[in-house]
Request: fold
Amino acid sequence: MSEPDRFPEPLLRDRTEALLTQAGARPDDARDTTRALLYASRIGVDSHGVRLAPGYAELLRSGGFNASPNYALRHTAPAAAMLDADNGLGHPASFKAMNAAVDLARETGIAAVGVHHSSHFGAAGAYAVAAAEQGMIGLVSTNSDAAVCLFGGAVPFHGTNPIAMAAPVPDTNPWLLDMATSSIPFNRVKLYRSLNQALPAGVAVDANGHPTQDQHAAAFLQPLGGKDYGFKGAALAGVVTILSAVITGATPDPEMVPTDATRNANTPQNVGHFFIAINPDHFVGRTAYETAITHYLALLRNSPATDPAHPVMAPGDREWKEAAERMKHGIPVDPDTMQALGLK
Reply:
């Protein structure tokens, strides 16, 4: 399989923002959405990168997304708030919610903001990193439409329901976890279809519930852990649904309208997100926190490896290394997205 063509990040930013604004998004919303998409493309999570922009543009044109939402933040307690995303793009609402949680946590130590009436928000890590860049530990979750079977289940029930956490580290990139509670995100199945690449074993099933590696036959996913340990992934997906939907008033996964480009204004998804910001200043204190996180990561990275040529890595190390490479050599873009962005 040939390598995808690569493009510099500034060009992708300009093309992506232009595509979204031409589809009706306000300039600020297009900018925030592009920021989240380029975060994913930069660190190598291509399934949630700029390849999502054409689908978002179709939903803006069809009315599936509200192109002019009124994002309404309502404080409900000293350390809690709710944000109504008004069926707009999920990315601007998510940056607003995480920034609100950070502002509250400066005073309260820990704060949470729930979001409802939202939509797909891309890679959860984008918003966790946004908290870490402001000196906070960020925790993020979102529910989504049913695409993953339960452990032993024959039909899709939960969404891919990611969990992300980022912790600031002095003078370097944050510690970063960004994971789906499914075997893989379904957007990766779509990416493999575009690349004409078979799926790994044990991640997807066909319409009859049988395991498949055929990217075109894949109908839904298995939970993290697969056929033997999928009860763990299914339970984690439930944690995400409780935080993101049950306590925010969003739609539960199995009742949510599917994410596709055929929806209109009469069928909003009402996706829910949850954002937590934790301020180390109010716990061990900033100086002690920075000393402790630096020491912890040194212990981790110096832990003996089974292969000395491949030392152990902290969560995020692989992604930040990939980001440095892509800043030098460009970001790979699949053929379908190249065409949508006018790159070929």
The first strand starts at residue 5 and ends at 7. Residues 5-284+335-340 form a domain with the Ribosomal Protein S8; Chain: A, domain 1 fold (CATH 3.30.1370.60).
